[in-house]
Amino acid sequence: MLVAIGDEASIGERLAKLRQVMQERGLDAYIVPRFDAHQGEYCAAHDERLAWMTGFTGSAGLGLVTADAALLFVDGRYSVQVREQTSPELFGYEHLIDAPLEQWLSGHAAEGWTVGYDAMLLPASWVERFSAGAQAAGAKLAVVDTNLVDLIWRDQPAKPTAAISRLPEQIAGESSLDKRARIGRLLGKKGVDWLVETQPDGIAWLLNVRGGDVDYNPVPHSFSIVGADGSVRWFVDQQKFPDGIKGQGLDDIALLAPDAFLTELEALIGKGQKVLIDPDFAPYAAVRAVEAAGGVVQFERGPVAIAKAVKNKVELAGMAEACKRDSVAWIQTLSWLAGSVAERARSGNPITELEVVDHILAERQKLNGFRQPSFGTIAASDSNGAMCHYSVDEESNKPLLENSIFLLDSGGQFDCGTTDATRTMAFAPVSDAVRKAYSLVLKGHIRLAMLAFPDGTRGHHIDVIARQPLWQYGMDYDHGTGHGVGHVLCVHEGPQRIAKPVSAFDLVPGMIVSNEPGYYEAGHYGIRIENLVEIVRLDNGYMGFQDLTLVPIARELIDPALLDADEIAWLNAYHARVRAEMGDLVEDLARDWLRKNTEPISH
Fold this sequence. Notes:
By secondary structure, the chain is of the alpha/beta class. 35% of the residues lie in helices and 18% in strands. It is globular.
């Protein structure tokens, strides 16, 4: 069920109603995060409070409403989109990372202000930051037990109740019982009595279950408390088991209602017991419950998240297989575009972005084990490509013209793994500026792909490798270079990442990450080249990347003079592998296109 966003007038009415409720409760400001109670990237329709209040539909953001103003904080991926989706008459705009809410509060909050928030929707680290900012101005944060947006959202969709299914051990590679015992031992080694796990993908991994409460991520919404003895209390709506719980391999865990999570947590924790809580992804309400019980909170990224990130051999084989299947859909789609865009444009019936979204979905639906997209396909022609996380709709739907620069970012959920890839292509000769930008992005992609790095390396140590070719020309991109990817789980998975911000976690063999540098000219085009890669152990004892995505890279956009001999050798070897492994898997017309577009290049 989609959220009815509304026009500028209805958004204005909602802001007015929220301000009235704020006044009744003695609040000078109220925080409206994009988060749900699980701090997930994708929200159920019931939890799309920020979108309903503002019209902004991006996957990350934060709203602040005061008596006479409203602000939207978004990161660089959405700096263009937020201005297109919302009214500057109603909202001001700030950068979520470079000029965060705590900074705004410290400089603009009036002394004596009370800033309200829902403790189930903000993680502890965010509350700490915002509180410090408010205190610097003589203001304070205050928990509001009832969500104020829910009070005024009369037609708010119901909470999701999608069915839960079991992930077979032959796909998971390890039983849930063994996983729980392993996590319990890790808790014991830390001297921790309990773990609060609220991230749906973490719980799904631990219990070997999958669900469908949000789009794209095959996970159920629930909460859990894990003991050092490996016991689990699972707070889940039992409507999600249409055939009952028997046969799910979960007979030895305690099932409770989601609404009992906080009260049970407070009742369970003994005075002085240590409880591990993720400061960045668990709701602050859990911290309050533990402290109310006299427990001691240990803030740390939980062992479930870390264990889940390092895939076992079965999971790694499944991810490689999923990427290979998905590459068939990619090659079929790129071949179709190459052969049809110019002809359709000249006929006056151009291919549109929405048509591309439908086409690559149809190609995936032909594939064995395909379940659903892993995120909303980004099909972005020309200026739409400058919005990193652009989402096409009927209003924004652009045609693909003969002189278009087209960016396609798409992935799938398969029965054995999760995929994500991006390619940029053109259908006629491009300017020297575009060719240069594309070649520099490719140069960064290849340099990262070729990298060998020692144990102890973290993502921020190597992020510069992909950016340096662009930096040489005063160019950059405002997003990370690589994110983790889950196994039949979330397409964006932590804690592994490759980005500018400091990471506290080593990159280790068995992790899956993306390699996706880019470049964006606002109002003109976007360029991104993305493969999924597995971190592997090299013969020299160092680590490196093994490509899983097997899709040609647009040769027609490359200026070979900007690549050195090693980079050209890498590209030619990659294309030779793509041709060898994919040639027999695609249809005849796509095979001809594949052969032509994997020919070696030289200076």
